[in-house]
Specification:
The complex is a heterodimer of chains A (320) and B (431).
Chain A: H1 4-8, H2 26-40, E1 57-62, H3 68-79, E2 83-88, H4 100-108, E3 114-119, H5 124-131, E4 137-143, H6 149-162, E5 170-174, H7 181-192, E6 197-201, E7 217-219, H8 222-226, E8 231-234, H9 240-243, H10 250-257, H11 261-264, E9 272-274, H12 287-290, H13 297-318
Chain B: E1 3-11, E2 20-27, E3 30-34, E4 45-48, E5 53-56, E6 58-63, H1 76-85, E7 88-93, H2 104-117, E8 121-124, E9 126-127, H3 140-145, E10 150-152, H4 161-173, E11 177-180, H5 185-188, E12 193-194, H6 197-202, E13 206-207, H7 210-226, E14 230-232, H8 238-249, E15 254-259, H9 286-298, E16 303-305, H10 333-342, H11 348-353, H12 357-363, E17 378-388, E18 407-417, E19 420-423, H13 426-430
Parallel strand pairs in B: 1-4, 1-5, 6-7, 7-8, 9-10, 10-11, 11-14, 12-13, 14-15, 15-16
Antiparallel strand pairs in B: 1-2, 2-3, 5-17, 17-18, 18-19
Classes of the chains: A alpha/beta (320), B alpha/beta (431).
């Protein structure tokens, strides 16, 4: 089995696929962020397009519904002048019994250049990357609980724009770490960039076993976890967690782990409040915090387009 | 009848710690002499062994032959051929067929197909519950009357502890051995790998070690009450092995085995989402692997099995969670066991006894020894030779092994069942 690292980079060390932050290294993260900086202004222009991917075909292959991620990938590809095809497989081919490999082969036969893949199972993007034709690149737009690397990159990109000295930061990630691909990728990105103090804050039922092997410190009290932090990242709480006996109720969760102005006071005065969205007001975060002066939640969204443009351009370069 | 002599081998009887160099004499399908021929013995055929090892044929307690019902994965004829290539002369096959092996008709069918194939001996494990559904008991008396000695529910759970208790009591009524693959379905939930650091990093739902220990504790408590003979198969945690070992010392009629791959691979094998390493029970920690090795060496575990589960290529060609668990393992069983000897910690005769005398005692069959009067079920192998796991050497219909491409120690030269050379056959010997 090809190691994941060799799967992402080609023989010349170029980015062939973008599947996970794991093992990619700080240099690549900085390179993607630097490239994204050059695209950040494209959206502010009169003509919001650059011709870098003209003549290329990008397929958004979504096996799980998502509005925000798909939309930003679509916008990113269009701003790069690529042709974009959106395929929602949840209601399409596999429902008719076609295998995942057949779906990929069929789309490949239409001469596509890139797959942007979202799937409910961990490892889906890896699987597709192992089986695509040599000229096709795969971008992971979220696989199961495993990874959501573009989301993590736009988060560290947002942090860098406000607090560029990663080696002095304290970052708390709060909520359902167990089921979160976003948290896994964020932790890997923050650690790779040298953040010395990464904390996860959650009840024990929502933390993966051996979470300390991620290089983080676990807290079960939100106040303690927020003490002196520069950044707090809140995660969305899914309603299903109540059914699986992981939590008693939304009310108790909010009482213990909901981010309110009072709790936020224990963080640094210039703390950044982040959330990958979509937010549940009154479940994990109060409206006063979400809409407050410390929130950079909407900034994250616009940075998402620049980061995705950067990743697409860098990955497409290896195929040429 | 044919008289055969295996000349100049090292005779390995699992009851003894040393190997004797000498000849082995066979007549009418039985061993008739070791070292010295019986009076007036005139062989019809001589096999020159050139110092290779003669051991009893291997007895594999956990094999899926897939027939009837899943012939796209494997067949009885094909997999028994793979078995004898691996030195296996007797195997127990799983009741998880379609229809499940819960009636005398299916037992008969399996037995007939095995006889027709003419390779190794096949012991069908009968279903413990009707249709393996886990709700109501199978007709165990009928199964017993059809010659079935062993029952089990394969990988499928029973509905609750009360059904387990009734099933054990009822099986004991007819003195059937009950084979249990211990895994609590509630704790296992929808997990597909060991719950540990690797699963956490990959975001794969885990099966905690407690899924196994809780199931073992429950069955042990029921064995105390019912006195049923229970064999735990395919252990994956050292804790479960210790629990069963202790219960055995206290006199409970229990035994256990472990699949050979669990003695070599750990959770690290899934690090690249490799579906070839997707197996249930999952590959666990280094501490589990080493603890299981120790238990095999000290007798806490009495047998090593293959847990052979052949699959068609498509079953493994998907996203990890969507692939089917299992390893095609008959042909690597002996080699992986010899690797344990190579790596230290267990002697050759003791390791081989876990493949021969150990499982024979669990099944209560007369086999697994090298002695005059025993059936001539034999495995002749060269421990110094090695082979590569690859297309040219592979027999099983299932190519699903995480050891593909690797070099393995120990090569089977001949397999004999009831004194007949069943491996290599004419074509294979010519090639």
């Amino acid at each position: 089995m090809i190691p994941v690292r060799d799967l992402q980079l080609d023989e010349q060390g170029r980015l062939r696929h973008f599947l996970t932050i794991d093992g990619l290294g700080a240099e690549w993260l900085r390179r993607i962020m630097d490239t994204a900086e050059t695209f950040a202004s494209v959206g502010e222009r009169q003509v919001k397009k650059v011709p870098l991917l003209r003549g290329k075909t990008v397929v958004n292959l979504f096996f799980e519904t998502s509005t925000r991620t798909r939309t930003t990938f679509e916008l990113a590809a269009k701003r790069l002048s690529a042709d974009v095809l959106n395929i929602n497989v949840a209601v399409s081919a596999t429902a008719k019994g076609e295998t995942l490999l057949d779906t990929i082969r069929n789309l490949e036969a239409m001469s596509v250049d890139m797959f942007v893949v979202r799937h409910a199972d961990s490892g889906a993007a890896h699987f597709i990357a192992r089986h695509v034709a040599p000229h096709v690149s795969v971008i992971n737009a979220g696989d199961g609980r495993h990874a959501h690397p573009t989301q993590a990159l736009l988060d560290v990109f947002t942090i860098r724009r406000h607090k560029p000295e990663f080696d002095r930061l304290r970052v708390a990630i709060v909520g359902d770490i167990l089921h979160s691909r976003v948290a896994r990728s964020q932790i890997q990105a923050l650690k790779a960039l040298g953040v010395p103090d990464v904390r996860v804050v959650a009840p024990k039922t929502l933390l993966p076993v051996a979470v300390e092997t991620f290089g983080v410190k676990a807290f079960h009290d939100l106040g303690e976890g927020l003490e002196g932090v520069d950044v707090v990242i809140m995660l969305r709480l899914q309603k299903e967690r109540m059914e699986g006996a992981l939590l008693p109720s939304e009310r108790e969760y909010y009482r213990c782990f909901g981010l309110t102005c009072e709790r936020l006071a224990r963080a640094k005065p210039d703390v950044l409040v982040m959330h990958p969205g979509p937010i549940n007001r009154g479940v994990e975060i109060s409206s006063a915090v979400a809409d407050g002066a410390r929130s950079v939640i909407l900034e994250q969204v616009s940075h998402g387009i620049a980061i995705r443009m950067a990743v697409m351009v860098l990955a497409m370069r290896s195929g040429q | 009848m044919t008289k055969l002599v295996l000349r100049d081998g090292y005779l390995l009887d699992p009851g003894q710690e040393t190997l004797e160099q000498g000849d082995l004499f066979i007549a009418d399908g039985r061993i008739v002499g070791l070292g010295q021929p019986p009076d007036g013995f005139v062989p019809d055929r001589v096999l020159e062994l050139g110092g290779r090892i003669v051991s009893p044929g291997l007895i594999d307690l956990s094999v899926s032959l897939r027939e009837p019902g899943f012939e796209h994965k494997a067949t009885i004829a094909g997999e028994t051929r793979a078995a004898v290539k691996g030195g296996v002369t007797t195997l127990c096959c799983s009741p998880e067929t379609e229809p499940p092996c819960d009636t005398p008709a299916v037992i008969e069918l399996i037995r007939e197909k095995a006889e027709l194939a003419g390779r190794c001996k096949v012991i069908p494990v009968g279903a413990l519950s009707q249709g393996l559904g886990g709700e109501s008991l199978s007709e165990m008396h009928a199964l017993k009357t059809a010659g079935c000695q062993v029952v089990g529910n394969g990988t499928r759970p029973l509905a609750n502890p009360l059904v387990w208790r009734r099933a054990l009591e009822y099986a004991a009524t007819y003195d059937l051995l009950v084979v249990v693959r211990p895994m609590d379905p509630w704790l296992a939930a929808r997990g597909n790998v060991h719950e540990g650091p690797v699963a956490s990093r990959l975001g794969l739902p885990g099966i905690p070690a407690s899924a196994e220990t809780v199931a073992v504790a429950q069955i042990l408590a029921l064995v105390e009450e019912t006195g049923t003979r229970v064999h735990f198969t395919c252990l994956s945690t050292f804790r479960a092995a210790a629990m069963i070992g202790a219960a055995r010392k206290n006199g409970l009629p229990v035994s256990s085995d472990v699949a050979a791959h669990s003695l070599h691979l750990t959770e690290q094998a899934i690090a690249g989402f490799d579906p070839a390493a997707h197996v249930i029970p999952p590959l666990r920690t280094l501490a589990d692997r080493d603890g299981l090795r120790e238990a095999v060496a000290d007798g806490g575990i009495q047998a090593i099995c293959s847990d052979h589960q052949p699959h068609e290529a498509d079953a493994k060609a998907d996203v990890f969670a969507a692939t089917e668990p299992g390893i095609s393992a008959l042909e690597t069983l002996l080699s992986l066991t010899l690797k344990l000897v190579e790596e230290g910690g267990i002697s050759l005769p003791r390791a081989i006894s876990r493949l021969t005398a150990g499982p024979a005692a669990i099944l209560g069959i007369r086999a697994g020894r090298l002695a005059a009067g025993e059936a001539a079920d034999l495995c002749v192998f060269d421990p110094q030779a090695s082979w590569r796991v690859e297309e040219a050497n592979w027999v099983s219909q299932g190519r699903n092994t995480p050891f593909w491409g690797q070099t393995m120690p120990g090569k089977v030269r001949y397999t004999l069942v009831d004194g007949e050379v069943v491996y290599p056959d004419g074509d294979e010997a010519a090639g």
